[in-house]
Amino acid sequence: MSVIKGSESYNCQVLCLNRNVVMIRQKIWLANDGNYKELRWFIAWKQKEHLEDFLLSSRISEALSQTKVPFGYGYIQFRDTNVIIFHTQQKRRDCLKELLLDDWTDIILCSFCMPVIKGSEYYNCQVLCLNRKVVMIHQKMCLENDGNYREPRWFTAWKQKEHLEDFLLFEALSQTTVPFGYGYIQFLDMYVIIS
């Protein structure tokens, strides 16, 4: 939906729940090839990890009994889940920390998909957790680039086959490093190969 703020027009998602506008989230990247020429009409949102108040028009305010709504880059939190419109680095860390502090990963190998930044590269990864620890972080080696999927716009493919490095985890976890790269996990009676 087109939303005008000040003198600028944004291509936005308007999130609604129970006859209320919960949040307005703008596109950060605009399509400008093929049939899509969004840059003719819209401006990309440049303020990462920033929310501000957006005043609704008087007609909408009267109909919804709501005058303002969060506008920008963020997520919506419910009692039992988070709806993350665009992940921020801090929120990803918080989600992973919550999963590891609870009993979700006790006795079972869990795979959580999330973007991971290593150096200056952004990887689409599986974070493998077992018994409240991160066991390994595995990156995608082939990125989808057809149909609705355009992963190379945001992510880098991992090129180093059969190579593991130490990855420094953030301070909030009980461990400091984890294997990062292409590998497998060995148990007493089987191997788990991540692909």
From TrEMBL:
Keywords tagged on the record: Ligase
Top-level taxon of the source organism: Eukaryota
Q: Does the keyword Hydrolase apply?
A: no
- Entry annotated with the keyword Cell membrane: no
- InterPro entries assigned to the protein according to its UniProt record, in alphabetical order: C-N_Hydrolase_sf, NAD_synthase
Q: Which GO terms describe its cellular component?
A: cytoplasm
What Gene3D superfamilies does this protein's entry cite? Answer: Carbon-nitrogen hydrolase
PANTHER family in the cross-refs? GLUTAMINE-DEPENDENT NAD(+) SYNTHETASE, NH 3 /GLUTAMINE-DEPENDENT NAD + SYNTHETASE
Please report the name of this protein according to its UniProt entry: Uncharacterized protein
Q: Which organism is it from?
A: Buddleja alternifolia
